Amino acid sequence: MNFVSTSRLGSRIARSTLQKRAFSAPVGPEAYTAIREEAKTASETWKKVTLFITVPLCLVYGAYAYNREIHHLEHYEEHPPEYIPYPYLGIHKKNFPWGDGTKTLFYNEKFNPSEKS
Questions:
Q1: Among the four 2, 11, 14, 73, which has the fewest Cβ within 10 Å?
Q2: In 3-state terms, what secondary structure has residue 9?
């Protein structure tokens, strides 16, 4: 008897014992009805949590984040960032394959000052 046949025999024994409902009463239709009722109440609870807690919190946080971002943009207009020429900035072995080849993919002239601006 090799390892494969031994493991198959072991899995067959485990499967047959795990499929048995030892020490339990047979399940009747009232058990399934109780499960359905419990699932229905749980579903209603989570629907209420979603509608009355999650959605309003998302709206409140969205308004908060919007106001913070507007304040941030106003601050940038008053105090624009200045370019500090560190020696490790702008080192490229070859140009990028987009645009003029000198700016990264997410380059923004308003927030990423360059030597030329």
A1: 2
A2: helix
